[in-house]
Design goal:
The structure is a homotetramer.
Chain A: H1 23-39, H2 46-52, H3 57-63, H4 67-91, H5 99-116, H6 118-126, H7 133-160, H8 169-181, H9 194-204
Helix pairs in contact in A: 1-4, 1-6, 2-3, 4-5, 4-6, 4-7, 5-6, 5-7, 5-9
Chain B binds a DNA duplex (21 and 21 nucleotides) through helix 3.
Chain lengths: ~210, ~210, ~210, ~210
Amino acid sequence: MSVEEKDSQQPAPKKGRGQSGSVSRRLILDVAAAMFSAQGFTETSMREIAAKAGMRAPSVYYHFTSKEQILSEILSIAIRSTNLAVRESVERLPADAAPRRKIEAAVGAHVRSLHRNIHYTATSVRYQGQVPQEVALNVRADRETYADYWQQLLAEAAASGDLSPTINRQFLQPLILGSMNHTINWYDAGRGNLEELILTVLALFKGMWPHQDR
Amino acid sequence: MSVEEKDSQQPAPKKGRGQSGSVSRRLILDVAAAMFSAQGFTETSMREIAAKAGMRAPSVYYHFTSKEQILSEILSIAIRSTNLAVRESVERLPADAAPRRKIEAAVGAHVRSLHRNIHYTATSVRYQGQVPQEVALNVRADRETYADYWQQLLAEAAASGDLSPTINRQFLQPLILGSMNHTINWYDAGRGNLEELILTVLALFKGMWPHQDR
Amino acid sequence: MSVEEKDSQQPAPKKGRGQSGSVSRRLILDVAAAMFSAQGFTETSMREIAAKAGMRAPSVYYHFTSKEQILSEILSIAIRSTNLAVRESVERLPADAAPRRKIEAAVGAHVRSLHRNIHYTATSVRYQGQVPQEVALNVRADRETYADYWQQLLAEAAASGDLSPTINRQFLQPLILGSMNHTINWYDAGRGNLEELILTVLALFKGMWPHQDR
Amino acid sequence: MSVEEKDSQQPAPKKGRGQSGSVSRRLILDVAAAMFSAQGFTETSMREIAAKAGMRAPSVYYHFTSKEQILSEILSIAIRSTNLAVRESVERLPADAAPRRKIEAAVGAHVRSLHRNIHYTATSVRYQGQVPQEVALNVRADRETYADYWQQLLAEAAASGDLSPTINRQFLQPLILGSMNHTINWYDAGRGNLEELILTVLALFKGMWPHQDR
DNA sequence: AATGAATGAGCCTTCATTCAT
DNA sequence: CATGAATGAAGGCTCATTCAT
């Protein structure tokens, strides 16, 4: 339920606290992410979050200035952790790996990250562009950074000839990411095999590559 | 913004004040669908809906018994109209058309229906499985009918050998539909060409078909 | 459910109508009395009354100018019919009957009237002095007329020596009437014998009469 | 206006703002009892209750979960306090007191309790069996306990021969209690003498006792 | 770090009533 | 006589948030 993200961009509440805020802080985020993804943001009350975190509503305000800040942080964590996982997975390939292989690695890492931090990422996917103004501003930069990385991968593939020229590149990235993101709505980790899901996605997407292999 | 759906369960009124009648009813649905898809269900108040429909909140209750009933009806209309459009498009093919052609026709019709009734369908997609209990019950039947139709198309394709055997059929339908549905989150009708979007989807999905054509 | 009261003090709605207003009018009163006594005045809506009377709410306004007028008329009918029944029963005695016998006759008639027109009288008892200002004014006169009649019976009994002098006459009338009126809260016509109830009341009240008989 | 009842199911708060604590709770009950008995339950709004208690409506919900819970608690307090007062008064008699004396003591205690906590008991009497389902369930047990106690007193009197055999015992208890309860509708503490009211009640009810004394 | 108590804002809904037809 | 449609008023209740302790 928790996430590997370590640093928090909020200034530490009061007294110097080494790394990232109290345990309560992370607990609140975890609890809130679980509830936001299950019931929605507005449908989850601060009292409910507090109760599940073992405290009363006013206590939450010691750690966060508002409900929206909680959402904002969840979204950031979701996007950043996926961003990080995808980059690491691509960089783990040999330096001269084919662009196609890089994209396939990215697909795998993206799906895996999605379902590893399901509460965070589900919240993130659900609230794409529907969040309150203020939250949107905080998160937009992270989203764009991630989108840019994919655009870069696709550009490399196009340049190398790996990418089929019959495909409209303007539509490609949202289609691919959207397709994967949507799996949070139906893929049940308890009843399926995640690696097989990834293989299916890759098989379905074979249309991207003009030079059929195998 | 409106939809081709005809029947309503209210007995058709005669001739109200001015020229109203069931016109108010449809107007409320249109307005509500637009707001639900843009801001969300809970974030939209009955007062707002009423205001945009040119009346006061209590008047809405003359036509609908609750806010949830409005949502329920929007979801039904969305699903039924897409269902209808897809079936018609498939049935318009020659009786002996290849299963693959049927699926391609279905993809086109689904995407077109999605973006033709964007407010209704966006509401529907956004609230997949997150709607209040009571609403879910009303809509479940329609959703299942539609899902069954796709399963049937895929089964035919598998039987005829059109469908690649390397693809996990359990994951196929949600992946395809999810990918298309997700386009409502990013495809902007004002700035793109819908038919080209469809072609891109079909191209991306070529992995489905083992016998590469062209 | 209906009542023997014939004349209504409301001016006949529009066109001359012989005696008392339409059948609908009486039907509405009957239905309203039943609901007021069962659920209370505020808890009964005009829509409910209309529905049980086989019409829609606005139609009720053809017969009555407001919900309060309906209540007002029910209360009047209840009090007047009991008043009438009690007087008739006393006057049916021989002219020289003992005051005690008159009071006993009045007790019997009061209880009988109470339970014959139970919906009307129950409404009346329940809303003793709790009705909206305007309604109270309309009904006060009727109530006082009836109370005066009992005071007169008691005065006669006191004058004749029938009434025990050890009883505070100031408290007697409300105690007697209250005791009888309260029976509408518990006496179930379907499961008891009304005449026996009356006998029990008379037996309980024997304390009134100092000269024990039988 | 207040009542001797002590326990509340809320955990006793520590020390609120100023000197509140459970004080607000009791204040709300007192205020609500006064308004319910004067205007009725439905006719009293939470906003009114709050205003008379010196707060705003939402604050009331900190102490009670619903308007009905307030009613429920008022009814419980009314019935329990009367129950307690009556029992104590009977138990204060010599152990070998005649059943008749016990009943007379009970009558006195009941009437005194009724008019001592007039707002609570008036609410209770007014809403005999007309309260919302959920409230009825909470209070039924208390009511039955009290009714049973009276039945027991009457049974003792019957067994000892104190009670007149010509009186239908099935009707006796509701007649007696109803008569006393009804006094809340007309007896004005400011203008009468409560002990004299009790004596009048006892005198009126002499019919119960076949062996006339004094 | 936490919380008891309170509150402004606002929401969904119901209701008595109106009015043109 | 009756009603379809609409509305001002108000009601019960929830919520995010505050603040003194």
